[in-house]
Design goal:
- The structure is a single chain.
- With 182 residues, the protein is an alpha+beta fold.
- The protein has six helices and five strands.
- The N and C termini lie far apart (48 Å).
- One iron/sulfur cluster binds next to α4.
Length: 182
């Protein structure tokens, strides 16, 4: 069954002498590059990283683990986000809340460790959709540039929002989500 009209039939024909040389194709490619270099950029140019291109509020960037209105962490370490994640980027360890920790964690169970491997993440947003506690959202922030692979594993220190620096995610929420958040 044909699934698309855009598929190309692969040709196994023998290459000609000119094709085997590769040079004509290389020059053709360089000519295209030169043409674009002379024509200059189309549209506005941003001198990144000093000047960043504006991003929409519903940009799927760096995650945030949300707190509730009393400042308690929302995540209950149910693991649904990790199960849903197609890139297997999320890992966590659950712990039981003690009486003294009721002001820190909203639910009886919480994530003592919560990590996202940003090198694996494809920013699909499925973790956000799977979460029953409105605890995880993607934001318009970018993942930092790092120089070693280990630094791309983001823990709670980078993911949980700061009490005094709340991140507004209302633009990302559907009307149903807004109504269901308790
Ligand atoms: S955005 Fe997608 S890939 Fe990234 S952690 Fe969430 S579910 Fe996994
Ligand atoms: S972020 Fe949401 S889905 Fe993931 S473990 Fe926490 S409560 Fe469960």
């Amino acid at each position: 069954m044909k699934l698309t009209n855009r598929s190309k039939v692969v040709s196994n024909k023998e290459m000609t002498f000119m094709e085997k040389l590769y040079l004509p194709e290389i020059f053709k490619g360089m000519a295209i590059t030169l043409k674009h270099a002379i024509a200059g950029p189309k549209g506005k140019v941003y001198s990144y990283p000093e000047v960043q291109k504006p991003r929409t509020k519903i940009w799927r960037g760096l995650h945030v683990l949300k707190r509730d209105e009393e400042g308690r962490e929302r995540c209950t370490a149910c693991g649904l986000c990790a199960v849903t994640c197609p890139a297997e980027a999320i890992t966590m360890t659950g712990a039981e809340r003690t009486k003294d920790e009721q002001h820190l964690y909203r639910e009886e169970k919480y994530a003592s460790v919560y990590e996202i491997n940003m090198l694996r993440c494809i920013f699909c947003g499925l973790c956000e959709e799977a979460c029953p506690k409105s605890a995880i959202y993607l934001t318009d922030r970018l993942v930092d540039v790092e120089t070693n692979r280990g630094s791309f594993i983001y823990g709670k220190d980078k993911l949980v929002e700061k009490i005094n620096e709340r991140i507004d995610i209302t633009e990302r929420q559907s009307e149903l989500q807004k109504k269901s958040v308790k």
